[in-house]
Write a structure and sequence with these properties.
It is built from 8 helices and 12 strands. By secondary structure, it is of the alpha/beta class. A 10-stranded mixed sheet has the order 1-2-4-3-5-6-7-10-9-8, sandwiched between helices. It has a two-stranded parallel sheet with strand order 11-12. It comes from Micromonospora radicis.
Length: about 350
């Protein structure tokens, strides 16, 4: 008897490549589904979902010659368009967002302070289409100039917020973390007519990309200071700078903050008469604050001109790494034992409105 398996009339089962070809459409469909889900997840983080907005939060998009920029605004309860409120722009660091999930809001807790003190918070967000890990491109010379790239976009956002929400143009301040800190310093150099003060938390100087980490002395801070001053052009003025740095930061070493203080001190000197000649009669003071229960020790330094105006203030925090310090921060890049950087930013801003 002939076996059905060997009968010439029996149907043969597909094997080898033919069977694998049946699975190709299925595998492709599964992959497409996974990509779509991942895309939705990234979109939710980057662009936001309705339930991610808190009370007083508004999402916006700025459109300008340099492109478009998404950002979130937080309005305090006392906002009613009749009083021109101050503005603080908070620029996130790498791997963070300022829109949708808004990890910068969680890290800094600026909204909580804004609700108490009565100022507007602005959170711009970097898109992964511009940087795959959501860093601001502060190390790219194309984003270190006025009327170009990210500086133009962020200055446009600040101006749009002032116009839309009737904010005080003399009290627009910028603070950033890590790559966002580098961008904040760039904004102080490129748009000193827009931002009254700047704060760098774990960031570096204007033109830091020109400094060789293995031979930093080859590029003195005065060299990059001249470039920052040149960017100011006819708008040049002394923009007060606040610097916060962790001594144990293995991403942005303490030397970077030291150079930033030296650079910005030199910028202030150049603004005065175009020469690095200490024409401002600068005074430097440092106060050491010892560690307390659950709190890091830190050194608070000030550089002031002879007329008492602030050039640079800095906080160098012992035992702190690459973080935004403060007791209430929530997220990966926080340090609850450090001084409250959010409060420091606001106190610094209140003392330094734009000169009229």
């Amino acid at each position: 008897m002939t076996s059905p398996l060997s009968s010439p009339n029996a149907e043969s089962k597909p094997t080898g490549p033919r069977r694998r070809r049946r699975w190709l459409p299925i595998a492709a469909g599964v992959l497409a589904t996974l990509v779509a889900v991942a895309g939705l997840g990234i979109g939710a983080l980057q662009l936001g979902l309705p339930w991610q907005l808190g009370e007083g939060d508004r999402n916006h998009v700025y459109e300008g010659d340099a492109g478009s920029q998404r950002y979130q605004v937080h309005l305090p309860p006392r906002y009613d368009e009749t009083v021109r409120l101050p503005v603080v722009m908070a620029i996130h660091g790498c791997g963070m967002t300022g829109y949708g999930w808004n990890s910068m809001k969680a890290t800094t807790q600026f909204n909580r302070l804004a609700d108490r003190e009565g100022f507007i918070v602005v959170y711009p967000t970097q898109l992964i289409s511009r940087n795959v890990i959501a860093c601001w491109n502060s190390a790219d010379p194309r984003h270190q100039q006025r009327r170009a790239g990210e500086p133009a976009l962020l200055a446009g956002v600040a101006r749009q917020v002032v116009e839309k929400y009737h904010a005080d143009p003399a009290q627009v301040h910028v603070a950033g973390a890590s790559s966002g800190a580098g961008t904040a310093v760039i904004l102080a150099a490129t748009y000193p007519d827009v931002f009254a003060t700047a704060t760098s938390v774990a960031g570096g100087e204007y033109g830091l990309n020109q400094v060789d980490p293995d031979n930093p002395d080859a590029t003195p801070p005065l060299e990059t200071a001249r470039q920052a001053w040149a960017q100011m052009g006819e708008r040049a003025r002394r923009v007060p700078l606040l610097v916060v740095q962790g001594e144990q930061d293995d991403v942005v070493p303490t030397l970077v903050a030291t150079r930033l203080v030296a650079q910005w001190t030199a910028v202030g000197d150049l603004v005065d008469d175009g020469l690095p000649n200490d024409s401002l009669g600068l005074t430097e003071k440092t106060v050491s604050v010892p560690a307390a229960a659950g709190r890091h020790a830190y050194a608070h330094s000030t550089v002031t001109a002879a007329d008492g105006s602030s050039i640079v203030e800095s906080y160098v925090v012992q035992d702190m790494g690459h973080a935004w310090p403060g007791p209430d921060g929530d997220g990966r890049y926080t340090d609850h034992a450090g001084p409250d950087a959010t409060a420091l930013v606001w106190e610094f801003a209140k003392r330094h409105p734009m000169p009229q």
